[in-house]
Write a structure and sequence with these properties.
The chain is built from 17 helices and two strands. It is mainly alpha-helical. The chain has two domains: 82 residues, no CATH class; 292 residues, ABC transporter involved in vitamin B12 uptake, BtuC, CATH 1.10.3470.
Length: 436
């Protein structure tokens, strides 16, 4: 009787004993993980001796949370058929979303421009916004390789490092300005992208990912051990900072220079440089976005998508997969080099520790979480993945645990990304209305 009512209501069969067994198993695994991570805590006792403190209440909270969460997940999966929308309703929802998307983009742009001058804004907020924009720019560049061309790249941080070290070496050795080094850094990163692309032309999927991961580690090890050229573990310091059309952001400029605050007749503040760097990366990120949106509609962009869908069919159409792959690697790496150049001038110091594998993992997670090929999804995922760990700083040693749990919840809720649906690059108009 209960099963008939459930089927009539549109609810799939709910096997309570099996669900309880799975929830208990998940809770047991959570207990095994929470016991050493949260249940045992080392503290300094008398005379410097280490004392192990037990926090069983924290373990109990974690186990109960996993058990209840697993039950709720099973319930949601059971009632999902009843809440599934028809194709017509879903299509109308997508069309409404696409209609409102330009207005949301304009509102987001206005908010980004006004961020440094909002009442709640301070130096920390502007710095955090700058970091978010760096990762968004990197993810938009990687989106060319992963989202459009369908090539899994786990070594994208290598191009980020090439751009940063190119500017750092040219700026400290020859005194080149940021604006001169910016295109040079992008070109050098694009060259390394082609250098990576040639050996992996025949590889796909996991094999391609392993090779790109190795490439990223090779670059990091070279930076770490080539002490005479890169400074080794000590890195490169005293990297020149960008100026505002020749106006430095310093209190005491060199002889013959006019600082920014004196030229505009305002009091000196260290926040001037922070705000300038924020707007600089905002402009670079917008240029990256416009470039990607434009190039995906050109023949090369459509060739990337054809390669992503089916390489054999792409070759059968007369397209050259070699050139398509190399162009994707080169252009994606170029924007990584631009972002690395900005990172170097922002920090004033770089070292190999800034370009470890976890950076590639974060950038790739932003692309996947936002939705493969979705520019708007990259923005949402970038904000979530960069801001969330900052909010979780209050949890101290459990910061990354909270971050990982949030990632699992998001991917469970949206397994194909926050914005899995993307409008076609080229849409054919209905018959009689011509092509669009």
């Amino acid at each position: 009787m209960a099963e008939a009512v459930a089927v009539k209501a549109g609810v799939s069969r709910f096997d309570l004993p099996q669900v309880l067994k799975e929830a208990a198993l998940a809770a047991f695994v959570a207990f095994l993980l929470a016991l050493p991570l949260a249940g045992l805590h080392l503290t300094a006792g008398d005379q410097g001796a280490m004392v192990v403190e037990t926090r069983w209440s924290w373990v109990a909270i974690g186990v109960v949370a996993v058990f209840v969460g697993r039950l709720l997940l099973a319930v949601l999966r059971a009632v999902r058929p009843a809440t599934r929308l028809s194709s017509g309703v879903a299509e109308r929802g997508r069309q409404r979303f696409a209609a409102y998307l330009p207005y949301a983009a304009v509102a987001a742009l206005i908010a980004a421009v006004a961020l440094p001058f909002l009442p709640f804004s301070d130096r920390y907020i502007v710095d955090l916004g700058t970091t978010v924009l760096i990762y968004i720019m990197l993810a938009w560049g990687l989106n060319i390789v992963v989202g459009l061309a369908g090539l899994l790249d786990l070594g994208y941080v290598a191009f980020y490092a090439v751009g940063a070290y190119t500017y750092a070496l040219l700026g400290t050795t020859y005194g080149w300005s940021f604006w001169v080094c910016l295109p040079v850094a992008g070109t050098m990163a694009a060259f390394f992208g082609i250098l990576l692309g040639y050996p992996v032309l025949r590889l796909r999927g996991d094999y391609l990912a392993i090779v790109t991961l190795g490439f990223g580690e090779i670059i990091r090890i070279i930076l770490l051990n080539w002490v005479a050229f890169t400074g080794g573990p000590n890195g490169i310091s005293s990297i020149p900072r960008p100026s505002f059309f020749g106006l430095p952001f310093t209190r005491r400029p060199d002889e013959g220079e006019v600082p920014f605050h004196e030229f505009f007749g305002i009091d000196y503040s260290g926040e001037h440089r922070v705000i300038f760097l924020y707007y600089l990366i905002l402009i670079l990120a917008l240029i990256t976005n416009l470039f990607v949106l434009r190039i995906r509609k050109l023949p090369i962009g459509r060739a990337w998508e054809a390669l992503r869908e089916d390489e054999i069919a792409c070759r059968a159409l007369g397209l050259n997969p070699t050139n398509i792959k190399l162009s994707a690697f080169a252009l994606g790496a170029m924007f990584g080099g631009f972002a690395g150049s900005f990172f170097a001038t922002r920090q004033g110091f770089i070292s190999p520790e800034s370009f470890v594998f976890i950076e590639s993992a974060i950038i790739l997670a932003i692309v996947v979480l936002g939705g493969m090929g979705s520019q708007t999804g990259v923005v949402l995922a970038g904000i979530a993945l960069i801001v969330l760990p900052e909010i979780a700083r209050e949890f101290a040693e459990f910061r990354m645990l909270v971050f990982g749990g949030a990632m699992v919840l998001i991917m469970t809720w949206r397994p194909r990304g926050l914005l899995s649906h993307r409008e076609p690059t080229v849409r054919l108009a209905p018959r009689g209305k011509g092509a669009g």
